[in-house]
Amino acid sequence: QVQLVESGGGLVQSGESLRLSCAASGIRFGNCAMGWYRQAPGKQRELVASITSGGSPNYADSVKGRFTISRDNAKNTVYLQMNNLKPEDTAVYYCNAKLMNLVIWGQGTQVTVSS
Prior knowledge:
This protein has strands spanning 3-7, 10-13, 18-25, 33-39, 46-51, 57-59, 67-72, 77-82, 91-99, 102-105, 109-114. By secondary structure, the protein is mostly beta strands. Strands 2, 4, 5, 6, 9, 10 and 11 form a 7-stranded mixed sheet that branches. The relative contact order is 0.33. The model has no long low-confidence stretch (mean pLDDT 97).
């Protein structure tokens, strides 16, 4: 069964940090491009960060310098370290895996940042 399971969300205050994890199963994780997306109420889902199968990261301008995406292929897991969180980072965060024509989404994890 192909599955992505996110964890690590929660409620924090502005300036604090969180680390999200996304554990993959049922796919050849090492061959997948992985991404973190987020969707705030009333807004479209947007790309936050992505990482290629080779480990090259890419970030949205709004999170550059604050968020870091990484992957551990031995654990089939991708991480999103989020530092200096801001209220505008509040959203449901989704993990995404892409392998050729296959696109898989996780169920999402809520991140809420209070001011």
